[in-house]
Amino acid sequence: MRPEGKRGGSIKVANVVLDGRFGGPQNRILQVGERLKGLGVETIAIIPKVDSETFYEKLLQRNVSVRRLSLHRLKRSMWGNLFMLLFFLPELAALVRCLRREQVEIVHCNTAWQVKGVLAGKIAGCKVVLHLNSTWVPWWMRACFSFLAPFCDAFIVSGYRVKDLFFVGLNERHQKKPLADIQPPVDAKRLDPGKHEADPRLVHADGVRITTVGNVNPEKGLEYFVEMARLLTQRHAGLFFFIVGELPTTQKRYERRLRRLITQYQLNNVAFYGPTDDVASVLKATDIFVCSSVTESGPMSVWEAMAMEKAIVSTDVGAVSTYIRDGENGFVVAVKDVQGLSDRVSVLTEDKELRFRLGRRARITAEENLDVGLCAEKHWRFYHQVLAGEPVAVES
To answer: Which of 41, 214, 243, 385 has its CA 20 to 30 A from that of 265?
Structure first.
């Protein structure tokens, strides 16, 4: 029998995000929020008015409740952070009013520096869950988490590495609070290779297509992807490399660095694809998927590639080695190991049957461990534990 919320049969959870740009956390809120409706949990996404158009439209399309407020976030610019400080108290008050008006029971905050959401949830009398999904953070973010931990009732982490990063040295009282290890979800039914056509832009490249997916930033380690491409191009003909993802305006310097490398190595077979709303078609046309990241928690792009039956070579970041067993359903190499990436991809370029075999096993792993239905069930169970005050951990 399923436990019930305060109003009997259902509970309300507000997911508060200060960054409205559509990415991993936003995708999780979208997918899990849609599935939780069938489990008696109503999700309300509280998002900023600025830079949130794509996320807002997707929430409406999936029939997930959404409220847009004026919410400033940390930025790289001095003026942006000044505005955040100036409007902190008015925005905090507006957020508290919204939570009370919606009769929210649990406030689910994302990232270790979500001060506004955590404090608003506490002031509004809600249970507060803080979701941590970073495996590298600067000292000030750790300090911020130490400040917020006493105001939180429970925590969600994306893998043991995230837990080890934040909870080592934390007050023992906070370490005993409810904790769930929940990976970002992948919709294995939607990401079924039999349901999609291959992206024509990739199919046009007549050879072995090697793809990486993710917003262009240093955390993705794309310079190592380019270095890998250089080594492989020296060893094999007919290889094509695609970097799929948004080129943020804040990462122009990094983009220029990558383009200089590509020009320096005369890699005419490496292309920036740009962003896509149809990652399934891109993956359908991909022969080998590579994750060259230097820091991740639960890399959703890897989970999506697994669901699409791709042969995967990934650096050992976040929870990758939990779900990809080296040589069984993919390959895992050390972070920044360009030679390791090159050697594993080289093996796959020469063995089509091995690519198929690893890809098929990868999809089975995704279906059994990472599907959005399982992820929603874990959220549902954990939310009820939090309301009941149960200090039981939910393992991934």
So the answer is: 214
For residue 7, pLDDT beyond 60: no
pLDDT computed for residue 77 by the predictor: 67
Span 78-88, average pLDDT: 79
* Element holding 1 (H helix, E strand): none
Residue type for position 212:
T
Element (DSSP H or E) covering residue 181: strand 179-181
Nearest to 41 by CA among 378, 395, 394, 285: 378
pLDDT of residue 391: 58
Using the structure block, give the residue that is written with the tokens 């959401």.
117
pLDDT tens-digit profile of 307-332?
Answer: 999 999 999 999 999 999 999 999 99
Q: 0.70 exceeded by the pTM?
A: yes
Q: Count CB neighbours of 80 within 10 A.
A: 12
- Residues with Cβ within 8 Å of residue 8, at least 6 apart in sequence: none
In DSSP terms, 108 is beta-bridged to: 15, 129
287 half-sphere exposure, CB direction, 13 A CA radius: 22
How distant is the alpha carbon of residue 153 from its chain centre?
A: 23
* Alpha-carbon separation of residue 34 from 27, 61, 257 (angstroms): 11, 10, 40
Mean pLDDT of the chain: 92
Burial of 101 (0-12, 13-18, 19+ CB in 10 A): exposed
Tens-digit pLDDT profile for residues 194-218:
999 999 999 999 999 999 999 999 9
- Please tell me what DSSP assigns to residue 299: -
Burial class (CB in 10 A: 0-12, 13-18, 19+), 378: buried
- The sign one gets for the Cα dihedral 237, 338, 288, 271 is negative
State whether the Cα torsion 206-209-214-220 is positive or negative: negative
Cα–Cα dist 109/223, whole Å: 32
- Supply the pLDDT for residue 80: 63
Give percent of the chain above pLDDT 70.
Answer: 94
CB-CB contact of 132 with 156 (8 Å): yes
Tokens of 360: 């098929």
Which candidate, 335, 337, 345, places its Cα nearest to that of 313? Answer: 345
